[in-house]
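Async update (no meeting this week)

Hi team, since we skipped the sync, here's where things stand on the single-chain job. The sequence we agreed to prioritize is pasted below, unchanged from the tracker. I ran it this morning and attached the output directly underneath so nobody has to dig for it. Comments welcome in thread, and please keep replies under the output.
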Amino acid sequence: MKNRILCLLALLVLIVPFKVDAVLCTSKAYGNLKSKAYNAQVSWELKFDANHQAYFEVTVFNLDKDIILIFNDVDYEPAEGSKVVIPNMLEGGRTYEFKFYGGYDSACVEEYLYSKKLEIPKYNYYSEKDACIEYEEFPLCGKYYSGDIPSDEYFNEQLQAYIDSLKPAPKPEEPEEELGLFESFIKFYTEHLIFTVPITAVLVLVVVVFVIRKTIRKKNRVKLDLKEFDI
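Output:
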């Protein structure tokens, strides 16, 4: 009889704690934990190792003490305040998922609460080129350009095409208007003043001399006529 009583007491000791935990994880307690999980913020930071290889460090902020984070099958608790730093050197150009569960001291131990996805961009080593200092607006110079740059030759070709596109397009030649005889003469005259002005001066001088000589001759003729008339 005593053995039976002892067995029953042992069973009660083993069973009661689980029943109490199950009762404590009410829908209200679960909802409160889920709200705390929603408040967690995940961010990334670009870093470089000793060989100048880019990697990303992820930090989880505002993580409540009753919440645990599970990433890559490893659980993390907020050891320093409400912050957790993921020690993995994460690769860029990928999307990572972070899962939140009820903490070990919470009412809902290891109960799934919430998942948050974080997209980390790919670091573009071509952004470090000297040409990108002058042409930082060039898409392939973007620090987190997501496209593929297969080779240096491809990058240089695309950069040159971008530089050429910045040059102003040549203005189309306007068709020349058809000029009349007088307009053509004026245009020729004004475009060749170094020749036309001296020629014009000579012509004017010739005309003046001709007029003067003709006037003098006419006067001489009149005088001769008058002399003959007097005789």
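Quick observations from my side:
Residues 1-23 have pLDDT under 50 and may be disordered.
Residues 126-166 form one domain.
Reply here if anything looks off.
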